[in-house]
Amino acid sequence: TDTILYKNGLTILKKTIHELEDGGFNLIMLNHSFEHISDPFETLASAARLLADDGVCLIRVPTVSSFAWEHYKEKWLSLSAPQHFYLYSIESMKYMAERSGFCLDSVIYDCNIHQILPQEQFIKNNILPHDKRAYNASVKNYILNFPKIIKSQKIAEELNKKNQGENCAFVLKKQH
Question: Which of 47, 65, 132, 171 gets the most CB atoms within 10 Å of its CB?
Answer without folding.
Answer: 47
